[in-house]
Amino acid sequence: MTVLKKTWKFITSMKFAVILLIVLAVACSVGSVITQNQTYSYYSQQYGERGAAVIVALHLDDAFHSWWFIAITSFLCVNLLLCNILRIQSLINRTRKASEYETPDATFSEYPGVTDPEGILRSLRMPDPKKDGGRLVSNTNTAVLWGAWVCHIGVLLIIIGFALGQMTHREYVAYGVPGETLPVGDSGLVMTIDDFRIGLREDDTVEQYTADITVFHENSDDRQSASISVNNPADLHGYRFYQNSTGYAAKISISKSGEPIQENILCAGEFIPVTDLPQLVIYLNAIYPDYYMDPVSGPSTLSGKLVNPAYLYSIYYSGEILGMNVLMPEEVITVEDYEIRFTDPQNYTLIQAKKDSFTWLALIGGIVTMAGLFMAFYLKPRKVQAELEEDGTWTMYNKVYKRDTLFDEKMKNAVGGAGQGGSDAAD
After folding, report:
1. In 3D, which of 408, 353, 379, 397 has the Cα closest to residue 184?
2. Of 37, 255, 354, 377, which is least surrounded by CB within 10 A?
3. 110-140+380-427 maps to which CATH number?
4. Contact at 8 Å (CB) between 184 and 195?
5. What's the gap between Cα 235 and its chain centre?
6. Residue ranges of the domains in the chain?
7. What are 59-73's pLDDT values in tens digits?
8. For the chain, what is the mean pLDDT?
């Protein structure tokens, strides 16, 4: 056998498919464990300089779009496709053979002395027999032969759908308070947060987050609105919008020499430079809705209710920290001529927008795979044939597959119920 033939035999073998599936499973696990699409500094902090270098060099920071992931997926798809193509003719031949008369052997049960074989076939609800002179053949559920083949096609569609979905997947995060209009990444969509509600139980624990949003294109007035909550997303303009989480935000007001110069909404964890002095930056570290100063652990909150709000802030000038403290609502931060206030604490909503153009293909693949499994493991092929003897009677045979003893018993009862003798030549 030449090297070319050996190579061809290997890449079209199930052994190669199993190897590729294992490698693909490992690749998917690595892509799930390592946080994707982060900076080099992030990976160096998490895994050290050497670990970060390996992650970036092997494209593990964007595994599902890497050349090696695409190569593995492509090889697996080609392997499954070739396996199925090469098996088609063999399956066609086996399907044809299943509908032809076979010389009875030990796999058949024999019933001689039958006078009405077609009547027995009807009582068994078998298809009309194929007639060839003094022979009759009826079989059913031959689709079982194609079960594994159909299952492989389904797996192929799932892999292709998953791979294409990962390569074309788009995901954005937008957050803000009611009344704000925000861009949804670079998708060309704009989202207005119409309202945001937090549903509480009787014990004041959170039961549900619900946001009312309106989404439209930047250059179009085609507006689509929906209410989204946790585990209840909405499909708008080709994207699926999820209510992801929430946090606290506040209004920051900055004055200079008593004149207002700036007013913005600032979420906890965000910073903002002063308009006419960008070197001066105000960072809102956290908001405590029900402020309490624990003598051991420091600032904390007694509850989630906005009854005694306080603001933990930091101030930087040219990258150097000037100060950090907790600010109560009536207090003001003063930096030279600037006065800074935090007011109107409220909840913001964080919303995710996702788009996967090939989910439908993976779904079809799943349905096809289930159909293949059903064909392979649930269907039981049945074959009944009869041969005319010289005395004018018929000898019937039935072949039992997958230990289908129930059908074997039905065959015996059908022959006996017709008042015709029968004996088991082989079981």
Report:
1. 353
2. 37
3. 3.30.310
4. no
5. 16
6. 3-89, 110-140+380-427, 170-247+352-358, 248-346
7. 888 888 888 888 888
8. 88
